[in-house]
Amino acid sequence: MRLRQRRFRPRTARFRPRLSTPSLLRGPTRLAFDRVRTSMGQARRGLAGLASRPVGLRVKLAIGVGLAFVGMVLIPSAIAVLTHRGQTEPVLSWVSSKDARVPIKVLEWNRGKVVTMPLNDYVLDVVAAEMNPSAPIAALEAAAVAARTYAIRSMLPIPPGVQPTFAQSHGANVTDNATLDLPWLTTAQQEDKFGKADAVLTLRLEQAVQATDGQVLTYHGSPIVAFMTALSPGETRDGKSVFGQPVPYLKSVKCPDDLKDPKETQTFRFSTAQLQQLLGIPAAPAGSAVGTPAASATGASATASGTHTASKSQAAGSRGSSRAGAPASASASASASKGAAVRGLIPADLKMHGADAQGFVQSVTYGKQTFSGMDFANRLHLPSSSFTWKWQGQTLVVTTKGIGNGLGMSLHEATVMAGRKMSYSKILATFYPGTQLVSDAAWTQGLASSSANASGNFTGNQPTSSSAKQPANPSANTALSSSGQTSFATQAAGTTAATSTPAQSKKSS
Questions:
Q1: How many angstroms separate the CA atoms of 429 and 232, rounded?
Q2: Cβ pair 176, 474 in contact under 8 A
Q3: How far is it, in rounded angstroms, from Cα 138 to Cα 67?
Q4: Per-residue pLDDT band at 77 (split at 50, 70, 90)
Q5: Which of 410, 429, 505 is nearest to 175 (CA)?
Q6: Which residues, other chains included, contact 314 with Cβ-Cβ below 8 Å and sequence gap of 6+?
Q7: Higher-scoring residue by pLDDT: 233, 505
Q8: DSSP string over 369-393
Q9: 283 near 333, Cβ under 8 Å?
Q10: Are 284 and 290 in contact (CB under 8 A)?
């Protein structure tokens, strides 16, 4: 018996496990691991003692060891599993949502590539660009519904006789250009913008997108063109003043809280030289006719939006001149000036024509050149085409009101309304009267079934086309430009059964 005991102990020592806590384990997982190690040690010592005990005592010890194993191993392990399950559930919910099964084709402006991505990722990126993620959740939810509606409408078949959008003409649904389509932020841009708070703010955005998963706004059974504007000039615009015919769900809505925002009114100053460069007006020999057309008289810069000082506007205009199709042609000025005196921009020849009730300018002319109000604002990188001006010597002082196109939902007013405990459905009903909040299943079922591969995953973020090129004049395709008003007004009014969104017309910031 002694010999057996002597032989048994070395065997126990040889099979004794050497456990160390991995450095990668954290939180509940590490706690459970430590408890497993402790309980295994206790079980080993108990088993070693059972060999020299009577049978009855062995049974009692076995039961005790079993209970200890349940209490110190199984229960903590179950807690750890449940804890980690709570952390992974949002991820599983995100990738298995209705939006995640719907692909949207996005034309990347700078690369000229069409990529396919899940709709929920696109909506999140748009809301991140449009809204402050710290806003009340109802405001984020309202913006998510509007962005999703905008995207779904852009996926609808193009009706006969309707001109396709720029994105549609290049095999995409939308672009990532903020002038042609909705502004959006990539993941890297969101990390730069939100900094250390990126993880928390992203969770809020995901929550808003998930809470409204698959919901869109319709009018007479068709997804609407859900315009949004960052900040109205005190009230939103009526669709009739923009498109020339009534748009039932685009009515003027009072936004008293927008008037209290510090950015409601902004002032910009431009010298005649800066105006000449930004507007693409070539220098003309003294005595020649005023307003000789530039390379593209009706174009507009699409490279920037928001607030700029005059010097920044001038620099941005130079960088974006190749896209606008109306470069500030220094070489042209030089060639025009050879052997003759050169005349710059004449303040008296720059004229403003018409404005709606909210102050949005219809057109601006310089001699024979004509710019729509939006074209003019884009070229000068003004936050809004609701503006007035006055001359101070050779300096044009422009005062703007609001931010964006003034149509649809004011995101600032929606944020205030959400802060007053108004639900996202009521916010949407306020800005889009007569619309219904419904599921997008009727429009997305075919898209979802045809887009998933054999494993059920997307081939997203992979270029599917490399033929797209940047347009010489992106704003010429916008529905708010004179060339696109007729076809877009028909679509916006909901008179076409199967309509296609003029995606490029919506600019909110």
A1: 17
A2: no
A3: 50
A4: low
A5: 505
A6: 274, 277, 278
A7: 233
A8: EEEEHHHHHHHHT-SBSBEEEEEET
A9: yes
A10: yes
Domain ranges of the chain: 2-95, 100-226+440-505, 265-333+340-401
The first and second tokens of residue 80, run together, are 């750890």
Q: How far apart are CA 217 and CA 208, in angstroms?
A: 16
The three-state secondary structure class of 185 is coil
**Token representation of residue 177:** 């250009």
Q: For residue 349, give Cα distances in angstroms to 179, 345, 363, 400.
A: 28, 8, 14, 21
Phi/psi for 340 (5° steps) reads -150, 155
C-alpha distances in Å from residue 245, one per residue of 284, 488, 496: 40, 11, 14
Q: Are 101 and 448 contacting, i.e. CB atoms less than 8 angstroms apart?
A: yes
All residues at 6 or more sequence positions from 126 whose CB lies less than 8 Å from its CB, including other chains? 143, 147, 182, 183, 184
Can you tell me whether residue 68 is helix, strand or coil?
Answer: helix
- Parallel, antiparallel, or unpaired for β 361-366 and 284-285? unpaired
Q: Which amino acid is at 490?
A: T
Structure-token pair, residue 146? 């509007």
Q: Which residue has the tokens 């995901």?
A: 206
Coil, strand, or helix at residue 251? coil
Least confident of 230-244, 281-295, 420-434, 473-487: 473-487
What's the angle, vertex CA 390, arms to CA 389 and CA 395, rounded to 5? 105
**pLDDT reported for residue 232:** 96
List, in order, residues 6 or more apart from 333 with CB less than 8 Å away: 282, 283, 342
Q: What is the pLDDT of residues 314-345, one digit of tens each?
A: 333 332 333 333 333 333 333 333 444 446 78
SS3 label, residue 351: strand
How many residues can be counted in the chain? 509
Residue 450: which residues within 8 A CB-CB, separation 6 or more? none
> In the structure encoding, which two tokens stand for residue 347, read together?
């303040």
- pTM value is 0.67
d(CA 165, CA 429): 28
Strands 228-229 and 409-410: parallel
Cα(469)–Cα(472) distance, rounded to whole angstroms?
9
Cα 282 from Cα 182, distance rounded (Å) = 32
3 state SS of 424: helix
Burial of residue 137 (CB within 10 Å: 0-12, 13-18, 19+) is middle
User: Over the stretch 181-197, which tens digit does the pLDDT of each residue have?
Assistant: 888 888 888 999 999 89
